[in-house]
Structure formats: C-alpha cells, structure tokens
Design goal:
The protein is mostly helical. Helix content is about 75%, strand content about 0%. The chain has one domain.
C-alpha cells in the first residue's frame, strides 16, 4: 500500500482561486489589509500633532509596539522560534528594508514633499517589487498583470494630480529621496519576506522583523534627533497603540499569511487600494471633498485591481488541476 502523505495545513495549502480568480476569503483579507494601511495615514498625522515626536523616534515607537504585539501572543502560544542562520539573516533583511528604510522614509518625508509627488512615488513600490520578483522569485509578469499594474498606477497618477498644486507643498530633493527610499525598502522587504514563506512561523517572523528593524531607527533617532522630546498623553498612547497593533501588527501578519498562498506581484497590485481607502476615509470622516480627477483615479485603480484578481485562462486550468489533485488526495486520505 502506498503511503499517503498528510494533507497540507491551511498555511501550507495554496488558496485556490476559483474559476473567476482570487478566492473570496483572500480578497476579503487583501481588502482588510489595505484598509488598515490606509488608517495609518490619519493616525500618523494625529500622533505627530499630539506628541510632537521626532519622525525617526515615532517610527521606532510604532515598530516596537507592533513587534511586541506580535511576539507576546507568539510566545504565549508557544510558537516555534526561527531556526537557522539563513532564516535569521532573512528576518534581519526584512527588518532593515521594510521597517528601517520603509518606515524611516515614510516618516521623514512628511512636510518636505508635496502630497501628489509622495502619492505617486510611494506607489511605485508594486512596480519595483514586480521587477525584483521577476529576478529573485521567478514570477513572470504576464499580460494580465502588466495591464492591471498599468491601470492601477495610472489611477494613482490621476488621484495625485490635485496634490501637485497644493499650496505650500513644494517638494525638496531630499523629500523625494526619502519617499523613494521608503518605496524601495518596502519592495525589497516584500521579496525577502516571500522567500521566507514556509521556513518560519508567521507571528514570529512578523514580530522579530519589527524589533530588528526598530534598532537602526532608535540609533538614528538618538544620533540625529536628540534630545528625544515627546509629549506623552492618553490620547497619544491610544493613537500609538492603534497604529502599532491594528495598522501595523495585524495588517502585516495578514499580509504575510497571504504571501503563503499567492504570488507577490499579483497580491501587491492590491496595495494601490491603500490610496483609494485613504481618500474615502478623508471624505467620510474628515469631510474632504473629492475632485473629478480623484474620482476617475479611484475608478481606474479599482478596474486595474479587479483585472489582476481575475484568473487568466491558463491559470484557470492550472488551478483546476491542483484543486482536483487535492480533492483526490483528500478522498484517498479518508479511505485509508
């Protein structure tokens, strides 16, 4: 009798897209992730206003809260520690790129780059990651994904148009550099994170990379922003906890879980929705009006995301074959 291998666990098993594309459960998770990331923008702005914290120190605080919020439950649940020099080096690389460069560039760019330029440059991240994923992960950028990325980025350009003419929002070269550095850091971190899939526990990976990435931020804050004066108050603590736990820890854990079951380039296109959600949040809660360009950009971005989320004909056949194989294995397993 042939030995039946155990069925893959939920994290090991790929989320099988149905005949129409990405599975509904993964679509819901992707939407939640981008919504949580969009919430970070008003939370960061409020945090600066409430505390007067220097940018690098604020970024380090966010990272520490997120790391603690992931590692405490990981240890309580007795999740396995990362093992092997390669895994730890990978986590260090993710921390230095996603957290140190990504958060550092994002926080430093505030006030020295116009909203329009910041929006466009920050959303080059999926494009940069697509190029890196081609060489590092072997992910091919097929026609459907190229069209989806182009539509999504064109939508972002339309959304950003009003920000180019914002009063008193002149961009400086150093500000542009900060945003590009942040986008490059996040793109590189996503590729490194994808390479860690299956080698490390989800909570441990997310928590340790935040803690490792916070160290350079703290050192840089001590060198360039001393004295570190922060006005601590209950509203600021609430803002920091919401930013660190909901907008950062939860969002990142969900994102890493999605990387277990899908290709980076396809999933990363959904990050364009972060800007869309940020505009919607501003319109609903802060009574910010939407221009015709922004509305058109939102529609175009949604079209691009929907286009990428749908499976192409060859992919449908592959996914159908994998689904059938899993069903056969499941039936054989039940018989045995």
């Amino acid at each position: 009798m042939n030995r039946i291998r155990p069925l893959p666990t939920p994290l090991q098993r790929p989320a099988l897209a149905g005949p129409r594309g990405i599975a509904p459960g993964d679509l819901a998770r992707l939407t939640l992730v981008t919504f949580l990331w969009a919430l970070c923008f008003p939370l960061i702005a409020a945090g600066f206003s409430l505390s007067g914290a220097p940018p690098l120190y604020f970024a380090a605080l966010r990272s520490l809260v997120a790391g603690a919020g992931l590692l405490l439950p990981a240890f309580a649940l007795r999740r396995p520690l990362p093992r092997g020099r390669g895994v730890w080096l990978g986590l260090l690389g993710v921390g230095l790129s996603t957290t140190s460069l990504g958060f550092g560039g994002m926080f430093l760019a505030g006030g020295v780059v116009s909203p329009g330029v910041a929006t466009v440059l920050a959303n080059t991240q999926p494009l940069i990651a697509a190029g890196l994923a081609y060489f590092a992960l072997g992910e091919r950028l097929g026609p459907r994904r190229r069209v989806g990325l182009a539509l999504g980025f064109t939508g972002i350009l339309l959304v950003a148009l009003p920000g180019f003419g914002a009063a008193g929002a002149n961009s400086t070269p150093i500000g542009v550099g900060y945003v590009l550095l942040g986008a490059l850091g996040v793109a590189l971190g996503n590729v490194l994170l994808k390479r860690l899939v299956g080698q490390v526990d989800l909570l441990m990976a997310a928590g340790w990379q935040f803690l490792l990435g916070s160290v350079p931020l703290l050192l840089a804050a001590q060198l360039f922003e001393a004295p570190l004066q922060v006005t601590w108050s209950l509203p600021f603590v609430a803002d920091l906890l919401t930013l660190g736990l909901m907008g950062t820890a939860l969002a990142f854990a969900l994102w890493f879980s999605l990387l277990h079951r899908g290709e980076l380039t396809r999933l990363n296109t959904f990050t364009f929705l972060t800007t869309v959600f940020a505009l919607i949040i501003g319109a609903i809660f802060f009574r910010e009006s939407l221009s015709l360009e922004e509305i058109g950009g939102i529609v175009l971005t949604l079209v691009g995301v929907v286009w990428v989320s749908r499976a192409s004909a060859p992919q449908k056949r592959i996914e159908r074959d994998v689904h059938d194989n899993l069903e056969i294995r499941r039936e054989d397993h039940n018989v045995i």
